[in-house]
Specification:
The protein is α/β, with parallel strands linked by helices. It contains 14 helices and 19 strands. The chain has 3 domains: about 130 residues, Rossmann fold (3-Layer(aba) Sandwich), CATH 3.40.50; about 230 residues, pyruvate-formate lyase- activating enzyme; about 55 residues, Nucleic acid-binding proteins (OB fold (Dihydrolipoamide Acetyltransferase, E2P)). Helix content is about 35%, strand content about 20%. The longest helix has 24 residues. The structure holds 5'-deoxyadenosine and iron/sulfur cluster. The site of iron/sulfur cluster has 10 residues, from helix 7.
Amino acid sequence: MYYKVITYGCQMNVHESEKLAGMLEDMGYTPCPEGVDPDVVVFNTCCIRDTAERRALGNIGVLKGLKKQKPDLIIAVVGCMPQQAGTAETIKQKYPYVDIILGTRNIYLLKGEIERVLSARERANAKRYRSSDVTLPENYLDIDASTPTLRSSYPNAWINIIYGCNNFCTYCIVPYVRGREISRDMKSVLDEVRACVDMGYKEITLLGQNVNSYGNDLSSDVSFSKLLREIDKIEGKFRVRFMTSHPKDLTDEVIEAMAISSKICNNLHLPIQSGSDKVLKDMNRRYDREKYFSLIQKLLAAMPDIGITTDIMVGFPTESEQDFEDTLDVVRRVRFSNAFTFIYSPRRGTPAASMPQIPYAVKQARIDRLIKEQNAITKQLSDLYTGGVYEILAEDVAPKYQNKICGRTDSGRLVTFDGDEKDVGKFFDVKITASRSASLFGERVN
Ligand code: 5AD
Ligand code: SF4
């Protein structure tokens, strides 16, 4: 019996798909080979932007044909998309062949629900079993800790440290679909890091919608900086990265913990979203440009080689031409090592969705200008690496080249160099010989 888990969205979803796969393998399902029809398909969905939703719905639609040919196929739609108010009902009506719908904190029910679908089918004349559960259980931490995980991103291990978000940025659907913040117990996080290091993982990526508020809901001596310092004490050669950091919550203690640690990479993803104080206020981001600049200065003073990436959104409802110019100005001044750029997409139920919207053509023109500006900076910063020698963790075989592998510098730049599958998971000193926009090419020096 074969399964397929199709994942949309962020690293949190990628990691949660490892849990979905863990449960399916526990039940005896194996990954579906190419060219064979699966027995179970799970769509782990995203709803952060309209495009993410449309892509998932399109692919769920495509399965209608397969379900006709193979009525035994089990289809589950889980995660953020059905967690939105009313969406589970819509999916039930528009895609009647979907068997199981589960919200963000109900994915652990997958096993039981599949068993129920199967047992209903065995009973003659039984009505077809269809289910949907999008409640947000309060004892989620215990449930999640006991869900098996099939890690599939060696040498990196994703580790969730905090679930949910309390920030309610006015454009964002996440707080509605992932509930309020719940931090995991620090001991349980440290145990998981140790277990992953013992198993041979060489990079730990701590995950949370806002890792910097880790511990706010725990006792007063637990904080994200404390967690970083404790992880740094764990024996072994491994790297630590984390995402995402909210600028309003990035403390001096976290910056210091990063700077003094040899394990925590000098790499930070710090979404700015906009460079205009007015837009930042309307977005409910609770920092201004000056605050953001001062964080950048502190980070550079503590770690001159740090790689800082960001998320930038254009076309927020109240963004004027001048506000957009302010964003370009920040991009030129900060010089991010890379930026993820997005066109604002109205999300039903969020405050910004009910404001007067900007025409799509204006948003498109702005993002084009932004990308052009950032690409030039990314390339200039890449060029600075050429000639230098950097320690690279080989993370994967290079997708586009034969007999090459790729990995990142401590600061997060992707480097491609000679090697094969057996080198993945090892550290190499690599001399950078060429740069091409965001990626570098190099040669091993030992
Ligand atoms: N439209 C466009 N981009 C969005 N993001 C969050 N919500 C929206 C939205 N409604 C972006 C933000 C965030 C990243 C993960 O996605 O930039 O940092
Ligand atoms: Fe969304 Fe803001 Fe929470 Fe990030 S911090 S998940 S952008 S509400």
